[in-house]
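question for whoever is on the cluster today: can someone run the full assembly for these? two chains, 670 residues total. i dont have access anymore since they changed the login thing
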Amino acid sequence: MAIHFHNHPGLVVYLTIGDPDLATSKRIALAAIDAGADVLELGVPFSDPLADGPVIQRASERAVQNGTRLEDVLALASALRKERPSVGLVIFSYLNPILQLGLERFAAAAENVGVDAVLATDLIAEESEEYRAVLRKHRLQPIFLAAPTSSDHRLARIAEVSEGFIYAISRVGITGTQQQVASDARELVTRLRRYTKLPIALGFGISNAAHVAVVAEYADAAVVGSAIVALIEQSSVEEAPAEVGKFIAALRTPVARETAVP
Amino acid sequence: MAEKSRTQLEMPPVARAPGRFDAYGGRYVPETLMAALQELEAAYAEAQRDPAFSSELAYLLHRYAGRPTPLYYASRLTESLGGAKIYLKREDLLHTGAHKINNCLGQGLLARRMGKRRIIAETGAGQHGVATATVCALFGMECIVYMGQEDMRRQELNVYRMRLLGAEVRSVSAGSATLKDAINEAMRDWVVNVRTTHYLLGSVLGAHPYPTMVRDFQRVIGIEARQQILEAEGRLPNAVLACVGGGSNAIGAFYEFIPDKNVRLIGVEAGGRGPGLGEHAARFQGGSPGVLQGTYSYVLQDDAGQISNTHSVSAGLDYASIGPEHAALHDSGRAEYVSASDEAALQATVRLARTEGILPALESAHAVAEAIRIAPAMDRNDILLINVSGRGDKDMGILARELNLQGA
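^ ran it for u. tokens below:
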């Protein structure tokens, strides 16, 4: 299937799967979809998450400790696809767990359970030829990251190899929350538009309705990750799904223009 | 022309990509770092074409760091083993006490060319951290060194040295609190501060161009050693031995000898406490190909692709992956990789100290241990050349404990 954003702005929600445990991850994911998430990024925990800030590092560590594997994330995707047929499902992983399962085996399984797209954090366009060929064969869309530091030449290349949407990183840095959406972000999205007609989702540091309102002015979707992972960390297992649902529902609440401007 | 293009077509497509060593190497990083890696690659290529760069580096290596280092015939060690003649390449005599300074001077000059005044580095044993702090002091640059908490504890003397030299040492407590975790943290710092900061990576690891560039800066070891052994013996050694953590001293020692097919190249990994996963850092014995921290190489990992903890008595060898060029040399069979246990390394340290009055770093002692193992069965005319990559002063705390040395 292909990713679609039915709302503006679209909402992409990242979850570290297996934190606090698989069953709770499923309940949280369903709550997120029902609260308005258009796309879920199902984060595969990794022992060495070097692109992530402390919040996702801790979540990843807990999930690895729980023994969460890529196969578990695929099984969760399968359950979500059955219960919520229209949500966009992205497997979001560092490359190594995918390589260990085997690229072909992974892609076949992902297609089989109804995954739409794959984003490998540490895979750049230039290294992706074989990966893209395998994903294409299994009708999975490859999503790539674009950064404020990417040259125009690189943005053109990223646009060329991406499908589904492009994940634009709002600022240089690792995942985590921030006070306001960086000024880097608008310029990056503007530059990207020259090379692509794909939807552009903006992520890194987006944590409240004011941020989402700013992002809506120039991007197609907002990605919310660390703020939700932090909320899960602070909530009890019982309350986490409802808390996440409330948080996501509030992200599209209209905010006063003044507070929205960074 | 036709001849050339036919040869190129016979190569697998992956081998033509920049920074590939057969299937290994490459660039597996978040997109944010690509601009910095390309900037570094371009600056390095430009520096290589600039005679002023190589003459300044040569000057510093000679006058500041103390190159060339001697090649020393270890006669008492040789006699005590009763076999092959043992020569030691004395990188332990360099300024700051290890081969790491060769690379730090090179990258320090590059950082200056790129106008980057903030330097970050990771360190395991602390030798790379000390060399980085030293070069930053020399060039007047800001220096931040990431070091695992466990490594700070066991290499405390080097922590003091870095701080004395003006570096900020940041403790990393994630994971096993060793070298791998320090690299993660350094990479996170780099992603955040990429526009102003140079990451002075200490080994032949990470994304292209690091494995190639760091090798080039360490090649001087083998260039000197090859010439020196020819002068001393009129022939090449039967084998060159070096310890392998990330593998920078080993690739530096091996590289000039690769075309000399009769010279065995022996890399010695950390065998630690035993063969179980988590008990050692012998990537070629318990590892399999995977991606860690920017490069595709052999990695110690579980079947879910999670990176394993490692153990070695020497902090500098205590790492889950290995430089990608070593992976290629391993698969092609051009180099052999063996391991030495913690115990063998400690015994080798004592033996070298008491036969030659030379205290090797615990890392380098792994290479000495393998030479001690194989020399007795060899002919008296055979020659073993060991790269003594560093000196063991930094290890006195561990040695005092492990060997029950009596103090005051």
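summary bc i know u wont read the tokens: The beta strands of chain A are 10-16, 39-43, 88-93, 117-120, 141-143, 145-146, 166-169, 200-203, 221-224. The longest strand of chain A covers residues 10-16.
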